[in-house]
Amino acid sequence: MILDSFLLTGRVAIVTAAGRGIGAGIAKAFAEVGADLVIGARTQEQLDQVAAYVAQSGRRAAAVAGDLSSRAGMAKLVERAMDEFGRIDIVVNNAGGSMPGPFLATEEDSFDEALRWNVTTAFNLTQLAVPHMLARASGSVINIASAIGRFGDRGFCAYGTAKAALIHLTKNLAADLAPKIRVNCIAPGATETSALNAVLGNEAIEQEMINRTPLRRIGTVEDIAAGAVYFASDASSYVTGRVLPIDGGINRANLEMPIPDL
Ligand code: NAD
């Protein structure tokens, strides 16, 4: 049955920034298709809610509350996975996000920070997890980039550049880790999460975003999770180094920044 190739029965996945939003959606979907989880984020209560859903699905979740911006924070996820489950099959580098802003007002620190939070975090966790994945001679790494990493637009010099770097890191790591470990990337468009609270709370802005999206809606975390299940599972066993846009069909940002010409 083709559906069997989408199952993750008995596999162990680490998902970063999994307390809410896209990370939580991916963790829940993985549990539904049979994976055990190590979930990391800052807020224990949010992680507990995700862990409860995983338990209801008949799987186990180890919740690790803490800061994931440092390599030490990522090391705790890997240690917990090995202590609790003794294996790592799947890594989802979902930690990331940065505020857009005008180029001349973007300070060096916030540019550096965007690269660190969106790219270095993925480098760190992947490098820490890969030796354990190699022990099983297989595995899947999934990076969560952004549509704005695929094309340029005003206001995204830090975030867009960082996500473009994450897309390129995906391609380089796919070469470094083939043939044992596959590395792929999802580039979501606007997705209903707390990260978009500021714009989705405004009816006029939201409608404009919908109008500029060929599929005429905002994405859901389940839209993104479906792609993650595909990349995590044997359904994509002949796919590596690829970027899957899940974005309603946009070819430019559907949110125009109110930034005037210089
Ligand atoms: P979100 O704000 O809904 O969730 C963020 C999660 O990150 C929370 O669980 C929070 O606890 C955790 N987090 C934040 N800072 C942390 C830190 N220092 N240490 C540990 N955990 C931390 O975000 P989201 O919208 O689900 O975004 C997830 C990923 O998807 C990001 O990489 C983002 O760039 C990307 N993305 C989102 C959208 C969108 O429209 N929502 C679009 C494209 C890409």
Description:
With 262 residues, the protein is α/β, with parallel strands linked by helices. The protein has one domain (2-243): Rossmann fold. The chain is 42% helix and 14% strand. It has 8 helices and 7 strands. The chain has a 7-stranded parallel sheet with strand order 3-2-1-4-5-6-7, with helices on both faces. Helix 2 (44-56) links the parallel strand 2 (36-41) and strand 3 (61-65). Helix 1 packs parallel to helix 2 (44-56), helix 1 packs across helix 8 (221-232) and helix 3 (71-84) packs parallel to helix 4 (108-134). The longest helix has 27 residues, at 108-134. The protein is globular and about 55 Å long. The model has no long low-confidence stretch (mean pLDDT 97). Nicotinamide-adenine-dinucleotide binds at residues 17, 19-23, 41-43, 46, 67-69, 94-97, 144, 146, 188, 190-191, 193-196.
Features:
262 residues; alpha/beta; Rossmann fold; 7-stranded parallel beta sheet; 14% strand; globular; binds nicotinamide-adenine-dinucleotide
Can I get a quick summary?
By secondary structure, the chain is an alpha/beta fold.
